[in-house]
Amino acid sequence: MKKVMVLLANGFEEIEALTVVDILRRGNVNCHMVSIGGNKVNGAHGIEVIADKTLDSVEENLYDAIVLPGGMPGAENLKNNTRVVELVQRYYSDKKLVCAICAAPMVLGYAGIMENVDFTCYPGFEVHVKDGNKKEDLVVKSHNIITGKGPAAAFEFAYLILKTLGNKNTEEISKAMMF
């Protein structure tokens, strides 16, 4: 069974994080909400979430993918966490799946992994991804990186992650959810 960690920092975009968690779990992916701080994490719109684990308690090498939701100041909090940046760099170099949506591709830019990589992000945040090739699509897959444009892309972003992880039932899950 594939394992994915969705990193949560205070100020995360709830739709982007929870949609990914929900869809991956429907696809039988072992998906953990992992807080970079304490167990309780406050979303950008005041929704408090209790994380499954904290970054200090996970065995990072056991995961197949990492997902960074956007939202402000959540994405900024992820970017400012040295351990998160190092984790993104290691996952990318190990050819594991690295996913970021909305403002979170700025973390990938800061990590220095975007050279010649196609990506999308929330308008204005492309300035943080100097080496990448900005696209206007809602979701973009390039190498082992998946990016999403913003909250409206959350479903498409999550389904692409699920499909890229090898789930053969992605289409059935999306139909059952009336997507």
Can you characterise this structure?
The chain is 31% helix and 23% strand. The chain has helices at 14-26, 74-79, 82-93, 105-111, 154-164, 170-176, and strands at 3-8, 30-35, 40-42, 48-50, 53-54, 65-68, 97-101, 118-119, 133-134, 139-142, 145-148. A hairpin with a 2-residue loop joins strand 10 (139-142) and strand 11. The longest helix is centred in the N-terminal third of the chain and has 13 residues, at 14-26.
In short:
This protein is α/β, with parallel strands linked by helices. The protein has helices spanning 14-26, 74-79, 82-93, 105-111, 154-164, 170-176; strands at residues 3-8, 30-35, 40-42, 48-50, 53-54, 65-68, 97-101, 118-119, 133-134, 139-142, 145-148.
Attribute tags:
11 strands; 31% helix; 179 residues; globular; single chain; seven-stranded mixed sheet; two-stranded antiparallel sheet; 6 helices; alpha/beta
Overall geometry comes to globular
Low-pLDDT segments, ≥5 res:
none
Profile the largest sheet.
7 strands, mixed
Strand order of the largest sheet: 5-2-1-6-7-11-10
Q: What secondary-structure arrangement, pairings included, does this model have?
A:
Blueprint: E1 3-8, H1 14-26, E2 30-35, E3 40-42, E4 48-50, E5 53-54, E6 65-68, H2 74-79, H3 82-93, E7 97-101, H4 105-111, E8 118-119, E9 133-134, E10 139-142, E11 145-148, H5 154-164, H6 170-176
Parallel strand pairs: 1-2, 1-6, 2-5, 6-7, 7-11, 8-9
Antiparallel strand pairs: 3-4, 10-11
Helix pairs in contact: 1-5, 3-4
